[in-house]
Write a structure and sequence with these properties.
With 312 residues, this protein is mainly α. It has three domains: 43 residues, no CATH class; 152 residues, no CATH class; 38 residues, no CATH class. Helix content is 68%, strand content 2%. It is globular and about 85 Å long.
Length: 312
């Protein structure tokens, strides 16, 4: 061993230079142990984080599909990695739940004759279907000017009846507490569930499922940003300025607006990432959005319910 060679402190590899070629460990010098360097590392992290984070946001909003296209082509240094970026959004949504989104309350899942009602009845020894029948009968006898008011009254009546039972009320509280975090962590399953139809629709042009996973991550990241952050903020501001717009808080309206914007984003992404023609990209975007609605509001919610129910 000559005077310039040294053993890596982490893996024991013999090497020359500042970094171990085997594991990447850096050789420490006197400067690295100074207090100033300690803060330099923090500054470097913040500036690097800011640069890659906003570069990723710019690519997503102004050039849909470019982030995924560049990442799959090996152009990665200027971007936040797609999966960590998605996980960061999920973490922010966990901290700042501006909109309940897919985190539906326990009572939402209970419908007459469905599997959720059967499981709850078995666990609590309460005939859930009978309570739901009573709520439906009582609500049908009240006249409302708007469907929104009727639905709100029916939901409140149903919740009141179900919560009046101690066993159901206790189960509901436990479910809602567990679901609050579980619903956000389970958002990760949207990526493989979205990648599969992308892979099937594209055929042989992109044979690696990895490529479709990357694009699925970008698409779902955009949906979280717009559907769970931007749109809720705009809607809350609109309602604060004009209280009469509270009627827009219906799940149907919110879902329509969010998915219309998402459809446009998918169309532009397919044009850029897959190099599809206008008509094919349009048809694919329509088909994918319809499939994504099924993924979000049927498959994801079913997985969320069963996961949460068996965790409590």
């Amino acid at each position: 061993m000559n005077e310039h060679e040294q053993h890596c402190k982490s893996c024991g590899q013999l090497f020359q230079g500042k970094f171990c070629p085997n594991c990447g460990e850096k050789v420490l010098h006197e400067h690295d142990k100074s207090v100033w360097h300690f803060f330099e590392e923090a500054i470097h992290f913040l500036t690097h984080f800011e640069g890659t984070f906003f570069a990723t946001l710019r690519a997503i909003f102004f050039h849909p599909g470019k982030l995924s296209k560049d990442y799959c082509a090996g152009i990665r240094r200027k971007y936040f990695k797609p999966l960590p970026f998605f996980m960061l959004l999920v973490f922010l949504y966990l901290l700042f739940p501006l909109f309940k989104g897919l985190n539906m309350q326990f009572m939402f899942y209970l419908k007459k004759g469905n599997e959720a009602s059967r499981l709850v009845s078995e666990r609590t020894s309460v005939n859930v279907d009978s309570l739901l029948d009573f709520a439906n009968t009582k609500a049908s006898g009240v006249v409302f000017e708007y469907d929104h008011d009727r639905n709100y009254y029916h939901a409140r009546l149903r919740d009141s009846l179900l919560n009046s039972n101690p066993a159901l009320s206790s189960l509901s509280d436990d479910f809602n507490r567990k679901s609050e975090k579980t619903s956000k962590l389970l958002l990760l399953i949207l990526i493989p569930l979205s990648a599969i139809p992308l892979w099937l629709m594209q055929g042989k042009k992109r044979k690696y499922l990895f490529d479709h996973m990357v694009l699925a991550t970008e698409l779902n990241a955009y949906l979280i940003i717009t559907g769970f952050f931007i749109f809720p903020l705009l809607l809350l501001a609109l309602i604060w300025l004009f209280p009469g717009f509270r009627i827009l808080q219906s799940e149907t309206f919110i879902g329509f607006v969010v998915y219309f914007v998402f459809f446009i984003f998918c169309f532009r992404s397919f044009r850029n990432f897959y190099q599809n023609g206008y008509l094919w990209a349009l048809l694919k975007a329509m088909a994918f959005c319809l499939l994504h609605i099924v993924i979000m509001f049927v498959i994801y919610k079913a997985i969320l319910f069963y996961t949460t129910f068996y965790l409590i």
